[in-house]
Specification:
34% of the residues lie in helices and 25% in strands. It is α/β, with parallel strands linked by helices. It folds into 2 domains: 236 residues, Metallo-beta-lactamase, Chain A, CATH 3.60.15; 140 residues, 3-Layer(aba) Sandwich (Rossmann fold). Strands 1-2-7-8-9-10-11 form a 7-stranded mixed beta sheet. It is elongated and about 80 Å long. The two termini are 46 Å apart. Bound molecules: MU-OXO-diiron. The site of MU-OXO-diiron has 8 residues, from α2.
């Protein structure tokens, strides 16, 4: 990876991971990702903002060598998770006079996660500054984006916000700055869906907190740098708002065709009514596509057959995931089928403890749907249509 320049004496020195297929062993990455690290050379001191995932340590070291960096005074740790902090031990060993600059909570995390010696830290708190001579860093605490210890660093003279995970996107590309708004938006939304969505209230507060800074560039630690900060700020404001899109997501799995038959009937009825439907077969759907659609969907329909006495495991997994990421759904329905009995509906309902959408009447069918079952599905479609007509 090449060294790329953000401003005078400010460089991107991190790594592009073109090949990474999964993040957190959970979300597929169709466009890879990057671990951004930034070097600031002040007239008196040099600071490195975050490091990279240890799998890309060689790229970080090569970039620092390319710039001829002999001395790093401060390594700013905005976040303790290892895709950014994992190379701290290596950097502290190579640049033996450097200190880790972070907040007290992040210090504790880094001691536990990486066994960094407590003497290597310089602890900063809300509003503190760090002078590098002709450049000044300001620190502000932004907890729960997406860990409790996260902070942002703002470079006053160049008006650059180093936001770590906040505003990040899973996007590997050779250009430092955003050059494909549509692809960037989708990649940032996929990223937000997995790790940020459960913390919407904290994110809303933290966006407000950043208003005190005049921001020319937002430089996150994944994906592109934003020359138009409002592009990603307004996207985030929308994603954390109460606004939902007039959209129904249907997640289904079917073993012998009964549940599929129900799903097709329901989705066709909804489409006939002019509603927007996204259908995902849980056996082969991309988890990132599903979570991305759930960022703003108004309604979710979960559809499962009965395996032994409960839902299909694929439906259990999906329901668990929905509950964990806490989408702002307004309405939810469960439909499905059984052969000889079971408690599929109860199992599914019991998994949904974190979210409080209005639960619409379920449709549970024995065997292949009959005429009265299709009628019940038509009524569910009417119900959803009426609810969606009230959305702003
Ligand atoms: Fe990109 Fe929370 O680490």
């Amino acid at each position: 990876m090449a060294v790329r320049k953000l401003a005078e004496s400010v460089y991107s020195v991190g790594a592009i991971d073109w090949d990474r297929a999964l993040f957190d062993e959970l979300i597929p990455l169709p466009y890879g990702t990057s671990y951004n690290s930034y070097l600031i050379q002040g007239s008196e001191a040099t600071a490195l903002i975050d490091t990279v995932d240890p799998v890309k340590a060689d790229q970080l070291l090569a970039n620092l060598n390319k710039l001829g960096i002999q001395k790093i005074d401060y390594v700013i740790a905005n976040h303790a998770e290892q895709d950014h902090s994992g190379c701290l031990p290596l950097i502290l060993e190579k640049y033996s006079m450097s200190s880790v600059v972070t907040n007290a909570k992040c210090k504790d995390f880094l001691i536990d996660l990486l066994h960094i010696h407590p003497d290597r830290f310089k602890v900063v708190s809300e509003g503190e500054t760090l002078s590098l001579g002709n450049k000044t860093l300001h620190f502000t605490m932004t907890p729960w984006v997406h860990w409790p210890e996260t902070m942002c660093s703002w470079l006053e003279e160049d008006q650059i916000l180093f936001s770590c995970d906040f505003f990040g996107s899973h996007l590997a590309q050779s250009h430092l700055f955003m050059d494909d708004p549509s692809k960037t938006y989708q990649s940032a939304k996929r990223y937000f869906a997995e790790i940020m969505m459960p913390f919407k209230p904290s994110i809303k507060n933290n966006i407000k907190k950043l208003e005190k800074f005049s921001i020319r560039l937002i430089a996150p630690s994944h994906g592109v740098v934003y020359q138009d900060p409002e592009f990603i700020l307004s996207a985030y404001r929308d994603w954390v708002s109460d606004r939902v899109a007039n959209k129904i997501v249907i997640l289904y799995v079917s073993m012998h065709g009964s549940t599929l038959n129900m799903v097709e009937h329901l989705s066709n009825s909804l489409i006939d009514k002019g509603l927007s439907v996204r259908l995902f077969n849980l056996i082969n759907a991309d988890t990132g596509d599903i979570t991305q659609e759930l960022v703003d969907a108004a309604t979710l329909v979960l559809a499962s057959p009965t395996v032994l006495i409960g839902p299909h495991p694929a439906a259990v997994y999906a329901t668990y995931l929905v509950n964990a990421i806490r989408p702002k759904l307004k309405y939810l329905a469960i439909i499905g089928s059984f052969g000889w009995g079971g408690k599929m509906l109860e199992y599914m309902e019991n998994l949904l403890t974190n979210i409080k959408p209005e639960i619409l009447p379920p449709v549970i069918v024995k065997g292949l749907p009959k005429s009265e079952d299709y009628l019940a599905l038509n009524q569910l479609a009417d119900h959803i249509s009426e609810k969606h007509a009230t959305l702003a």
